[in-house]
Amino acid sequence: MIFLRDVTDSKNAEKERRAMLKQNIAMDQLIQGVTRIVERFAVCDLDSGIYEYYEMNNESYYNPTGDYRELLQRMSGEYVILTEKINIQMDDLLSPEHLRKVIMSEDDLYTFEYCTLDRSSYKVMSVIPVEWKGSILSKVMLIAQDIGQKHELEKLANTDALTGLYNERYLSERLKRNGKLRKKFAMFYLDLDRFKPVNDTYGHDMGDRLLKAVSRRLCKCIRKTDYAFRIGGDEISLIIEEGNINDEFCEMMVRRIKSVIDRPFNIEGRLLSVDTSCGYAIYPEHSQKIDEIRIMADHRMYEDKTQNRKCGRVYNQDSERTPYC
């Protein structure tokens, strides 16, 4: 009996050794295949918490091996996840707990996009299941691929060629997205009064220069997390999604926008001045329908324009206008 048990144990050990060898060969083949198409990747053991990092261009950006949690913490300090959810971090999406929730079978592939903090580099992370212990995911491969060209093309498609602001196409997309997520935001509509005399007097090239100057000033009085759009002609829209958004805040923003834009512009030695009409609406406080928010902001902008006309202004093409109301 002892002999039979020894023989059985020996056979089981040999079986396990062969299975391990077969698994290692499969892993080597997988790594060799991946190296043909990507520049960097990591194999992560979710049980032991150890990763192995591979860099094809010999830059060795991360240590060849180390603690998986520490790797995730470092990545979280270097990259931003491109998602509508607020405060989602790299170490949240790539934690063993989360990966075991989203990867349930060998056919599952988990991906998300991310970028550097300064948004100079865009990448996509693909997580591939590599090894299982029963039904529990135990090892994954993280593959990072550059998608900067894709985002550059998207930026071109969503940007106004003259001013560099976002265009109406992206405005519609942003409104649709916020409505789907029921995300609170304030929308501002701006129109440049007395802009036509600049075009009529100095030509459209001077008008284009003035629009560019207005856009630059406008971007300086809003945050990087806010959105500025050129709707067409001299109409501009803003969307502000974060912060304490209420009527008091929006009225303060209207005053701030006017004070910034209404100052004279010195373009090629000429002082050019425009007035700003501005209206706003808050979603969902003023309406739960996205289309109505846009209409309300536009309507209030025209009410402000009417009030400006009633107020009246003395305009001189080469000097600052003087209000007399």
Q: Compute the number of strand runs.
A: 15
- Helix percentage: 40-55%
Give the mean pLDDT: 83
Cα shape: elongated
Question: Helices and strands: which structural class?
Answer: alpha+beta
Largest sheet: 7 strands, antiparallel
List the helices and strands in order. HEEEHEHHEEEHHEHHEEHEEEHEE
Percentage beta strand:
25-35%
Query: Distance between the terminal alpha carbons, to the nearest Å?
Result: 110 Å
Number of helices: 10
Oligomer: single chain
What's the arrangement of strands in the largest beta sheet?
3-2-1-7-6-5-4
Rg, rounded, reads 29 Å
Weakly predicted, low-confidence segments: 30-37, 313-325
Q: Which helices and strands appear, and what pairs or packs with what?
A:
Blueprint: H1 2-35, E1 40-45, E2 50-55, E3 65-67, H2 68-78, E4 79-81, H3 90-93, H4 96-102, E5 110-116, E6 122-133, E7 136-146, H5 148-157, H6 168-181, E8 185-193, H7 196-202, H8 204-220, E9 227-232, E10 235-240, H9 247-261, E11 265-267, E12 270-272, E13 275-283, H10 290-311, E14 313-316, E15 319-323
Antiparallel strand pairs: 1-2, 1-7, 2-3, 4-5, 5-6, 6-7, 8-10, 8-13, 9-10, 11-12, 14-15
What keywords describe this structure?
alpha+beta, four-stranded antiparallel β-sheet, elongated, disordered C terminus
Give a written overview of the molecule.
The chain has helices at 2-35, 68-78, 90-93, 96-102, 148-157, 168-181, 196-202, 204-220, 247-261, 290-311; strands at residues 40-45, 50-55, 65-67, 79-81, 110-116, 122-133, 136-146, 185-193, 227-232, 235-240, 265-267, 270-272, 275-283, 313-316, 319-323. With 325 residues, it is of the alpha+beta class. The strands form four sheets. A seven-stranded antiparallel sheet has the order 3-2-1-7-6-5-4, with helices on both faces. Strands 9-10-8-13 form a four-stranded antiparallel sheet, sandwiched between helices. A hairpin with a 2-residue loop joins β11 and β12. The protein is elongated. It starts with a helix and ends with a strand.
